[in-house]
Amino acid sequence: MKVDLEKCIGCKKCIPFCPQGAIHVEDKKAFIDQEECVECGICVRQIECPRKAFYEPEEVRQWPRSVRKVFGDPTEKHESTGVRGRGTEEVKTNDVTGRVKRGEVGFALEFGRPSIGCRVKDVEVVTIPLAKMGIEFEPCNPLTSLLDTETGIVHDDVRNEKILSAIVEFKIPEERFAEVAATVYDAAQHCKGTVFSWGLVVRYAEDGTIPVTKTLDKMGIKYPKNAKVNVGLGRPLTNA
Ligand code: SF4
Ligand code: SF4
Fold it and tell me: Do 93 and 13 have their domain in common?
C-alpha cells in the first residue's frame, strides 16, 4: 500500500488502524514501511482518511508481492484454491465437507497474528519435520501451493514475503497422533520471530469422549475444548 503524499495532511488518524504498525508520520506526511506492510487493505477499507490518500500500487497485484494481499486481505480470493481467507473453508468447523472423519485428527497450525505477522518461510519450522514424517499437506489450503510438499521447503520466490498469517493444514490417522503431536510441540520450541497457534479437529467418539485428550494430558499440554458450530450446515453428519 502507498500514501499519496500530495494528498496527505499528516493528521495521524490512520496510525492506530494498521495491524502491523507499518504507518508513521514524519514532517506531516504519512509513510508506510513497505517491508512490514502485509497489504491487508484495512487502511483503504476502514480508515476515515480525510483526504483518501491511500492507494494500491500495481505491484501489489504482481508476484510475489501478491502473496501478501491474498493472505492478509479477507476480501481477496486465492488463485490456487478460489477460497477467501487463510485456510480452507472448513478449517475451524469441519462443517463444510466433513473432511476429518472418525478415527482421524485434523491439524491447523496458524502462523502469525495481527501486529506480528510472519514471513512465509517461518512455517518451515513445522513443515520440514512434518514432511520428513510423510505428512500430506491439505491441497485445498493456499499455503500448500507455496511449498515443495516432499520437503516442506517454501519456494524461493515467496520465502521472504511478509504476511498477516498462514495456516498449515493436514490430517492424520488417530494412531499417529502421539508422534505428530510430539513433533509439533518440539517445533514450537524452535519457532522464532513469530508465533503459531495449534488447533485440532476431531469428532466426538461414540461414547461421548474426545479423542486425543489422553495423549495431550500425558504430554502436559493444556487445552481449551472450544467448539465452533455453523448452524444450518451439518451435511458431514451423514458421512461420519
Ligand atoms: S489519515 Fe490520511 S491524511 Fe491523515 S495521516 Fe493518514 S494518510 Fe495522511
Ligand atoms: S495495507 Fe494493512 S499493513 Fe499495509 S499499511 Fe495498510 S493497514 Fe497497514
Answer: no
Substitution site in 13, 32, 71 for ligand 2 pocket (most atoms within 8 Å of beta carbon): 32
* Pocket mutation for ligand 2, best pick of 20, 35, 67, 165 (most atoms within 8 Å of C-beta): 20
Range of the domain at 51: 2-62
Instruction: Report the alpha-carbon distance of residue 211 to residue 173 in Å, rounded.
Output: 11
If asked whether residues 152 and 206 sit together in one domain, one would say yes
What does the DSSP assignment read for 112-137? --TTT-EEGGGGHHHHHHHHHTTPPB
State whether ipTM is beyond 0.95: yes
Q: How many folded domains does the chain comprise?
A: 2
The cell 476502514 sits on which residue? Answer: 46
Ligand at shortest distance from the CA of 9:
1
- On whether both 103 and 157 belong to a single domain, the answer is yes
Q: How many CB atoms lie within 10 A of CB 182?
A: 12
Residues 203 and 146 in one domain: yes
**What's 21's domain CATH number?**
3.30.70.20
Tell me the pLDDT band of 153, cut-offs 50, 70 and 90.
Answer: very high
Asked if the structure places residue 72 within a domain, the reply is no
State the cell numbers at 11.
493528521
Do 90 and 199 belong together in one domain? yes
CB 46 within 8 A of CB 17: yes
Question: Which residue CA neighbors atom 6 of ligand 2 most closely?
Answer: 43
Q: State in Å: Cα 226 to ligand 2 middle.
A: 31
pLDDT tens per residue, range 43-82: 998 778 999 999 999 999 999 999 999 898 887 766 666 6
pLDDT of 96-132, one tens digit each?
667 888 899 999 999 998 889 999 999 999 999 999 9
